[in-house]
Design goal:
heterodimer, A: two-stranded antiparallel ribbon, B: mainly alpha, ABC transporter involved in vitamin B12 uptake, BtuC, globular
């Protein structure tokens, strides 16, 4: 066997290889279901019946899609520039912290409350990720490790706040902050948990970042830095500035996801594990599937939203640990990066 | 004096899994392959070790538990090797995927062992001494043996090594699988000796700290001993000072992670990255510069 390079692979090949990789991933996860003692077909049927074939299931998928969409569009930009932000989880939490801080302690006219919370959240996420970019640029510290470590720090920060200075007056058992006022809560689609303004914001951001990446000078520079750092140096495009820009954008969108979760669903700052069920990690697959196109996140975010909602169904219906979502994420990521060789090469039997 | 000795003993005890995992990661990084999946491989090793030691209702085999954990870690690393060495995928992302899969699979399959106690468990002394011995062995391997030289050349300049007739792919596969086996062993130390029990998420970021430690110690196995004891001491202080001072416990909980960032920044300040193997993180493809 040998590999034969394909000079001009067709876009159709990319779609085909990706679908094959996803198929392989679902088959492998089926093996994990089997090892757990559950028929793979039964598991997949339960997931589908509880999500797509159920009216309430649809809402769950949509609700899960919102944070994945917001984080995913930022990450697709970051990965394209080869800035590996693995800390969206922590940036989401920081966004939630700052938004909650504004809601709880900043007296504002009601009309300004929500925009101020959103702004604070984006700022919080951006700074948390910007710190990693700064360390990478100044001290060449690997951003994968820093962003990941900052996740743990953000978790401790949230717990400290709701257990200490921000502890709610009516807390028994689970800890949380006081409840936000009515005007500090995002409107939802009638009878659901779908906070539509955040969903709309995600769609707009996906299209905007797509335009930025492919129709602007800044976007061109980011792409050159990501695809050919040597050429970027030759063209005088500073790599460090590109990293900082994408770090602020990707951190900012993750912060906005945190704002959406607390202003749209929980209406208070709550424990980190309840606030985010691993959105920051699942969004990595969302972004990787989109292969560096922010607009494609509009398709890939619902897919992972479906898997998160399906994980919920398995947990409720069959008492299966939510860890199954990590298995899905990891196996899909393996299959995707493993298949990338076949985008540009053809396997020939000699 | 007694207090100091006690602190040192606890630091060694806690530093041991860090040291073992760090040496594993160091081994495959010297051969040019980064594996960020240490956290996941540790979780799998911890579960495999515990499952074999526990058996059906506590009558498992303690002697087989350690090899089982190393096998689990090694097999998981083999997956990373296949994706990054044969399929030439991005090593950082593959390691991340391995962490997710490892934590996920261990969490799923470990559900039935959750909260069960292990009455009969191995002493920690042999593990501590073994870990230090392993560090000395690796130092000797890299500085004084042909195999060590071959591994290092594959990590520094795989094209030249290939030209000299070394089997780059085989050496890298070997290093990656051995590194994974050590990560599995580190996990087994947690579930068999340190805790002795299994809980989902019991690795608590230790695998990531081990990866950072490799950079901190400049890819030097001997310095890894001191790095691991240093972090072990920090964990000891975290438990010791909790509740005694007026400082909130969350500060202590986040201290190891903040410290990782700090030591990485310090390593950057000292230009430590210059010690990294030249071809670290780059897949080797014959006929390409």
């Amino acid at each position: 066997m040998r590999l034969e390079p394909l000079p001009n692979p067709s876009p159709l090949r990319s779609v085909g290889v990706t679908l094959l990789a996803l198929g392989l991933a679902f088959a492998l996860v089926g093996g994990v279901f089997w090892a757990y003692g559950l028929g793979p077909l039964e598991a997949y049927r339960t997931m589908l019946e509880g999500t797509l074939l159920d009216p309430r299931g649809w809402q769950e998928v949509l609700r899960r899609t919102i944070p994945l969409l917001l984080i995913g569009v930022g990450l697709s930009l970051a990965f394209r520039t080869q800035f590996y932000n693995i800390g969206a989880e922590g940036q989401l939490l920081l966004g939630a912290v700052l938004a909650a801080g504004v809601a709880l302690f900043l007296p504002l006219p009601p009309a300004l409350s929500l925009p101020a919370m959103a702004l604070a959240a984006a700022l919080g996420g951006a700074l948390w990720c910007g710190l990693a970019a700064w360390l990478k640029n100044r001290l060449s510290v690997n951003e994968i490790l820093t962003t990941l470590m900052l996740n743990y720090v953000a978790q401790s920060l949230v717990i400290y706040l709701i257990n200490g200075p921000w502890r709610g007056k009516d807390v028994r058992g689970y800890i949380y902050s006081d409840r936000f006022a009515e005007h500090q809560q995002l409107p939802v689609l009638l009878g659901t948990n779908v906070h539509w303004p955040t969903l709309a914001l995600g769609v707009v951001l996906a299209l905007l970042l797509q335009l930025l990446l492919f129709r602007s000078t800044l976007g061109f520079r980011l792409r050159v830095v990501g695809e050919n750092p040597g050429a970027a140096r030759y063209l005088g495009i500073p790599q460090s500035r590109a990293f900082l820009v994408v770090a602020l954008i990707t951190g900012g969108t993750a912060g906005l996801a945190g704002f959406g979760e607390i202003a749209g669903i929980h209406h208070r700052l709550i424990e980190p594990t309840q606030l985010s069920s691993g959105y920051g990690f699942t969004a990595i697959i969302v972004a990787w599937l989109a292969r560096g196109h922010p607009a494609l996140v509009l398709l890939t975010a619902p897919l992972m939203g479906l898997i998160l909602a399906g994980g919920d169904v398995l947990k409720v219906a069959l008492n299966m640990p939510f860890r199954i979502v990590d298995v899905f994420s990891g196996v899909m990521l393996f299959a995707l990066i493993g298949s990338e060789l076949f985008l540009h090469y053809r396997l020939r039997l000699r | 004096m007694e207090e100091v000795l006690n602190a040192l003993a606890r630091a060694l005890s806690f530093g041991t899994p860090l040291l073992i995992a760090c040496l594993g990661a160091l081994l495959n990084e010297r051969a040019g392959v980064v594996n960020l999946g240490v956290e996941g491989m540790m979780a799998l090793g911890a579960l495999a070790g515990f499952a074999v030691a526990y058996g059906e209702g506590g009558n498992g085999n303690l002697w087989l538990a350690v090899p089982a954990a190393m096998l689990a870690g090694g097999l998981a690393a083999l997956l990373h090797g296949f994706v990054t060495i044969t399929l030439q995928a991005n090593q950082f992302v593959s390691g991340l995927a391995l962490s997710m899969v490892g934590l996920g699979v261990a969490g799923l399959l470990g559900k039935r062992y959750e909260g069960l106690p292990l009455f009969d468990h191995p002493p920690e002394g042999p593990f501590i001494l073994g870990a230090i011995g392993l560090a000395l062995l690796l130092a000797f391997l890299f500085s004084a043996t042909r195999l060590g030289l071959a591994l290092r050349s594959v990590g520094e300049n795989p094209a030249a090594a290939d030209l000299l007739g070394l089997n780059v792919l085989a050496l890298r596969y070997g290093a990656v699988v051995a590194g994974g086996a050590l990560a599995g062993l580190a996990g087994a130390y947690l579930s068999l000796v340190y805790r002795p029990s299994w809980t989902d998420g019991m690795t608590a970021g230790l695998g990531w700290i081990a990866v950072a430690l490799v950079i901190f110690v400049g890819w030097n196995p001997l310095r890894a001993i001191f790095g691991a004891v240093f972090f072990g001491l920090l964990y000891y202080l975290q438990f010791r000072l909790q509740g005694q001072s007026g400082i909130p416990s969350e500060v202590f909980a986040s201290l190891p992670y903040l410290l990782v960032i700090l030591v990485l920044a310090l390593s950057g300040l000292r230009g430590q990255q210059g010690n990294a193997p030249e071809a670290l993180g780059k897949p080797y493809r014959r006929g390409e510069r």
